[in-house]
Amino acid sequence: MVIQRFFIEDGNLLETTQFQPNTGIEIYEVIRVIRGIPLFTGDHLKRFYHSAWLCHQEIPVDEDTIRCCLKTLIRSNGVEEGNIRFSWCFHPAGKFQAYFIPHFYPGPEMMEKGVECELLSAERPDPNAKVVHANLRDKANQLISEKGVYEVLLLNTRGEFTEGSRSNLFFLKQGCVVTSPTEEVLPGITRQKILHWLSVSGKPVEFRNLPLEELPGTEGAFLTGTSPKILPISMIGDVRFPVISPVIREIMEAYDRMIEADIQENMERYSD
Question: Structure pTM?
Answer without folding.
Answer: 0.91
